[in-house]
Each structure stands twice: as C-alpha cells, then as structure tokens.
Design a protein that fits this description.
Elements (H helix, E strand, L loop, with lengths): L1 H26 L8 H4 L18 H5 L1
Length: 63
C-alpha cells in the first residue's frame, strides 16, 4: 500500500513540473505566432489527385 502513496506523490510532482514548464513557455511567448495567420489565406489548400486515378493535377492542367 505504501507503493501507491509513493507513486501518487511522484506523479503529482511530475504533473506540477509539467504545468510550471507550460506556464513559463506561455509567458515567454513560445506560442505566439503573428506571421502564419496573416499568410494562411495565400496557401493553396486543394487536394491534388494522382494521374493513376484518371484525374489531372492542377500542375498538369496549367501545362
């Protein structure tokens, strides 16, 4: 039974460590991304089919 108390204690300390690391990363700006949202609409989101399926890709249509 004492092993369970030991494992619970260790897991709580590990969880607190990960939470502190997450808070430090957020406060330091690790997850701030100002560039990608402004250019996301410029990226092509079309799904390109292969020629094996009988559908031409957009690159082949342009040629």
């Amino acid at each position: 039974m004492s092993v369970i108390y030991l494992l619970i204690t260790i897991s709580i300390f590990v969880a607190i460590g990960f939470f502190i690391a997450f808070v430090v990363a957020v406060k330091s700006g690790q997850y701030d991304d100002d560039y990608t949202p402004s250019v996301r609409m410029l990226f092509d989101d079309e799904i390109k089919k292969t020629k094996k399926q009988g559908i031409q890709t957009t690159e082949e249509k342009q040629i």
